[in-house]
Amino acid sequence: MKKLMHILFLSCIKATELIEKKIYFKLSLKEKLQLKIHKLMCDACSNYEKQSIIIEKCIEIQQKKQHSEIDITDFKKQITANLEKIKN
Amino acid sequence: MTPEKAINLSQWVESYTTELYSWAFYKLSDSEQAKDLVQDTFLAAAEKIDGFKGESTPKTWLFSIINHKIIDFYRKKVSHPVSIEDQSFSEFFESNGEWKRNKKPQNWQEDNEIQLLDDEEFQSVLKKCINSLPEKWNTCVKLKYLTKKNGQDICQELGMTPSNFWQVIHRAKLQLRSCVEKNWFKELVRKKRQ
Predict the structure, then answer these.
(1) Would you say residue A17 lies in a domain?
(2) Is residue A88 included in any domain, yes or no?
(3) Do A83 and B141 touch (CB under 8 A)?
(4) Could you tell me if residue A45 is inside a domain?
(5) What is the band of B157 on the pLDDT scale with cuts at 50, 70, 90?
(6) Neighbours of B111 (CB within 10 A)
(7) What is the distance, to the nearest Å, from the Cα of residue A30 to the centroid of all Cα atoms in its chain?
(8) CATH architecture assigned to B3-79
(9) Which residues of B touch A9 (CB under 8 A)?
(10) What is the pTM of this model?
(11) pLDDT by residue (tens digit) across B181-192?
């Protein structure tokens, strides 16, 4: 019985795979339906999806926050010095 | 290199370093590595400058050099296969594909998602968890946000097939989610009980 359920409505490993795939690629109609029904029956995978999306958003926020400030004048001097080196 | 071209090059360093650096930083999110790539770009430009006929602007020419270097950088990173990959699935799932009993995602009782996004404790745990990922996964996870590209384009850039790509993401996310649950959610519950 369980095996049949897995074939029709995915195992948890497959369901979580589709949850991730969905973030980057379009799912087929069949995949969408299977995932939807699987989630209705499975709390763990429903939690997984919610949390996976939260994590996605957090990573995005963190990436935006990173600073990119360096001393550009100093850096230019450094590059010029290195270019001098290879000229000789 | 003729003296005239040497002058050109030093003018370019003056004019384009800032932009090249911002671009490299945006793509790599690491200032040391971004600096290295900008350095390399000017060195490569010095070597190839005799081939520069002025058909495109110097800026376009320099950006095409640095873009190649950025792609190479990511290719190198993902080309080292990660050996623990298969193990990681059996860490979470039974052989029939069901969650292992103690690995089932719990309800974090996040009544408000926005609150979580602002939660410093949560953010700092997540940061630590991301840094503990194997490098290949880390790269795939970061690349998406840095480039704002869709899956198809990222795969092309990395020379990976789509199925290979989202499997890496899948494993990375399983690991991340469970790391956050262990170090943030369970800690929170423990503290509340005290």
Answers:
(1) yes
(2) no
(3) no
(4) yes
(5) confident
(6) 7
(7) 22
(8) Orthogonal Bundle (1.10)
(9) none
(10) 0.69
(11) 999 888 888 888
User: Can you tell me the distance from the alpha carbon of B85 to that of A42, in angstroms, rounded to the nearest whole number?
Assistant: 25
- Does A12 have pLDDT greater than 50? yes
According to the model, what pLDDT value does residue A11 have? 94
DSSP assignment, residue B185? Answer: I
Residue B13 has pLDDT above 50, yes or no: yes
> With an 8 Å Cβ cutoff, is B89 touching chain A?
yes
Question: Are A54 and B97 within 8 A, CB to CB?
Answer: no
Do A13 and B89 contact (CB within 8 A), yes or no? Answer: yes
Tokens for A56, please give them.
């996605």
Residues of B in contact with A47 (CB under 8 A): 104-108
pLDDT digits (tens, 9 = 90+) for B46-102: 999 888 888 889 999 999 999 999 888 888 777 655 444 456 788 899 988 999 999
Q: Which chain A residues are closer than 8 Å to B123 by Cβ?
A: 58, 61-62
Structural domain for A25, as ranges: 2-67
pLDDT digits (tens, 9 = 90+) for A17-71: 999 999 888 899 999 999 999 999 999 999 999 999 999 888 887 776 665 567 8
- Indicate if the alpha-carbon torsion angle B89, B90, B95, B99 is positive or negative: negative
What are the φ/ψ torsions at residue B55 (nearest 5 degrees)? Answer: -75, -30
Task: Give, in order, the Cα–Cα distances in Å from B27 to each of A86, B43, B69, B186.
Answer: 28, 20, 11, 35
A87 contacts B26? CB cut-off 8 A:
no
Inform me whether the C-beta atom of residue B22 falls under 8 Å from chain A C-beta atoms: yes
- Provide the shortest C-alpha distance from residue A37 to chain B (in Å): 15
Domains: count for chain A: 1
- pLDDT score of B7: 76
Residue A17 near residue B165 (C-beta atoms within 8 A):
no
Residue A48 lies in a domain: yes
Query: Of A14, A45, A75, which is closest to B17 when you measure between CB atoms?
Result: A75
- Domain spans of chain B, in order of start: 3-79, 85-193
What residues of chain B, 23 to 82, have a C-beta less than 8 Å from chain A?
Answer: 25-26, 29, 31, 34-35, 38-39, 42-43, 46
